[in-house]
Amino acid sequence: MTSLNLSSNNLSGVIKPDMLSKLRSLTDLDLSNNRLLSLSTGNNDGNYSFPGLEIVSFSSCSIRQFPNFFRSSGLVGLDLSNNNISGRISKWEGEGWEQLRFLYLSYNFLTTLEQFPGKSLEVLDLHSNLLQGPILSTCLNLQVPNPPQSMEAFFISENKLTGNIPSLICNWRSLQVLDLSNNSLSGSIPDCLGNFSDSLEVMNLQMNKFYGKIPDSFMNNSLRNLFLNDNQLEGIVPSSLANCGSLEILNFGNNKLTDTFPHWLASLPNLQVLILRSNLLHGSLSTSPTSSDFSKLRILDLSQNEFTGAPCQ
Question: Taking the complete model, does pTM exceed 0.85, yes or no?
């Protein structure tokens, strides 16, 4: 047997490594959505090896601790989302995991992360935990390679992170999704975030405490969604966004921008949502931003600014 799926049942009890070690041909194991099921946390669990196991899902169970007994396996994907894992993932627990590429730990109660597990991660989902402090700086400085070049999607939204965005994050040149939203991150946004990855499609930094100017270094034609709203950003809408021809959603609302209306955004052929509400934007709207130049625009929010003129001319 190579695949075992017992998800969405009423299974209960504790899964011990010796139970799984007997299934030597198993590559895929799915026990998710069994609310009374947990994993063993014994001291000897790390002595077992599962060389054939590649994908394991224990989402929505009752796991309370990051499991040790998969560390030396050849796991490629591990889903532990929506459990009761609390406390920290120590540097020791983060070591190993040599083949791990996809790790899902969202909706738990993690407070500290000393090291990102694995060296070849492509997707790391940590959103909706209790992570706090300058974890980004701490983890990125510890990673070898520094940081892993393989990362494609990084989710750490809805936590309690503080500190700034370290420029080392710009070494993730394969990144497609970066979500740091709903934290207490501060400082200025690194200039390199505008052009560090040719593959970046989504950048979400909304609802933090970033200040200063928005970097004027955007050169990415893959960028589709850019969320910088609900921060303390100042200055103007950067003209380099004209290079982002794939941009569909642009949200700079609830900041302190002091620009005039950026009519040049009409040059973006795919722009559908433009939100600039609650800034200090000023000047005349005598040339309507709802004209045919914004051919695909569906949502436009310019409320709570200081515009003048007759917008419907």
Answer: yes
